[in-house]
Amino acid sequence: MPPPSRRTGWLSLPHLLGGSHRGPADAVPAVGPCPAVALYAVAPLRGVEHLVLDDLSAYADDRGWVVPAGCAVADSGPLDQSPAMRAGWQRVRAAATGRLVHGVVVPSFAHIAYRAEDWERERAWLLEQGLFVVATDPTELQAGLTPEELRA
User: Fold this and answer.
1) Percent of the chain scored above 70 by pLDDT?
2) pTM score
3) Could you give the CA distance from residue 69 to residue 38 in angstroms, rounded to a whole number?
């Protein structure tokens, strides 16, 4: 198995909301040997969705998570569009409701919901479903790297 990617950092929604002092790795629940996750992103333009989903897929793969068929989903357009209006996000919600996935991997939480009121509604729903959410953010990790590490 290749070493974990150094391009991305991650945060877990239950860890952020629970006030726990555990480390981020402890925030992802153990759901058997291979948790199933949905991948979700909003791409700014049509035709480039696969680029974002490829990165998310590699991230999930690095952790031994599986992505069920049809659970790698991208919408295109602006991030500030209501999640209720995004067909792809509704597919992820259906997969979660049907218990096909145990978590969701996104580039950032803004891909789920950009506006505060939308985020609060989606966050509450995610927690009700018992899902973990992992947000990868390449700029977050790069901020902590030395110039030599950035060139590598």
Assistant:
1) 68
2) 0.70
3) 9
